[in-house]
Amino acid sequence: MGAYVVTMPASIAMAKTDDFDPARVLDGWRAPAPPPLDDLDLGRLLDAGRASIDETKRARLQARGYAMQDVEDIDLPHVAPPPPVNDIPRINLPVPRADRPAQLLSAWEPRAWTALVRRVRGATSELVTGHAGHPVVENHAPQWLCALWPPQRLEAPVLGRWPELATLTAAETALGALHQLLAQLPLEAKVWPAELDADWVLIAELVLHQDPRLRPSQAQALRELADAERSATFARLNDGYALRNRVARRRT
Length: 252
What we know:
The protein has 6 helices and 8 strands, in the order H-H-H-E-E-E-E-E-H-E-H-H-E-E. By secondary structure, the chain is α+β, with helices and mostly antiparallel strands.
């Protein structure tokens, strides 16, 4: 028996294949509208989401002494919101100033000691060897070179070249350095921190010569101060004075 083969024109086959577009299958479909809220049993929905305990477990917990009570709603008190940031009033608080010790004067007075202070070096850190031989970092406060002269007398109203006391002190401020020296003076002594010219080379050399407990960094700082003062003095000799009629006069 012979077999028959039915063929379809290519144009008809392509037309049927092209009519199916998967991307447009849901064209025209709309989700069904939800039921109105009035028809919903909200209480039943809330009960469904609330944890519940069956009667057997409830009886077992009550037998152990647990009280199964419903939690009642608590009305929280109304708290007003804070005002906007721009509406908060600005309060200016006074900045406290560092107290000046009673023995340190702000102006010269008779029978007052005269103190001169020079900053030698700022705060530093250095690596030293500890007791167990391990390196240790030491932090040091600023260093101040201090010199004090006794109260001036009528017969000697000008400060002498040699101070009565001289030392290198570590402190955050100049007043702090002078405050440490008050214990070296009589109890009734008052100190006037002055801003006068002094022979800082002499004062630095005096401390270098007399204080064997200076650290190497402190001694180096004093030597650098002395060298800088010598250079400044030499420059002032050349620029600050001029010879006129064999008299050295200060330049105006």
